[in-house]
Amino acid sequence: MKPARGNPQIYHYLKKYQADPKSRVFAPLAEAYRKAGLFDEAIEICRDGIRYHPNFIGGRVALGRALFDKGDYESTVKELAPVVMEVPDNLVAQKLLAESCLILGRLAEALVAYKVLLFFMPKDQEIIKLVQELESRAYEDGLLVLQDDPVPLKSFTVQAADRALSADPLVKRQEWINRIELLQALLLRVQRIKLANIS
Known about the structure:
This protein is elongated. By secondary structure, it is an all-alpha fold. It is built from ten helices and no strands.
């Protein structure tokens, strides 16, 4: 762990952390490290803290931010996918997940995450535009199929079994159905959270 020389914010949280390494102060300390560009230190602090507080969403999001800023998008997705399942209205986690999936070329997952963001921020023009572009790309790539589209007739080709399975339109269709069902479940959960907060 790097010393806090010249950074009063790191020094402030580091003192508290050293006094009680099992406290939740690891999250703001990790954020201070991240903002100072010390990504490895931020990740290390978060991983230590999450061992004591595995259900602390703030700590998991801090870890996701540090991983994202370091450019480790695979790990960002791995860390934040469970967070947005549990707390879909955590917009920071949702946005980092969406951007990571987009960078990794995981179009379907990025689209789902951006649609959840759009649900919470329906007037955000940037997200509206992104969702439209992603839907258009997904349609062009054959990942989305309109109900009125004719079923394409293609000649059979011989290919490796794993490639044939992943390219099978029925398999792709089922994957999209699963993703849409997941999105609907997330949106229902979000509605319940909103209703609970109102009452």
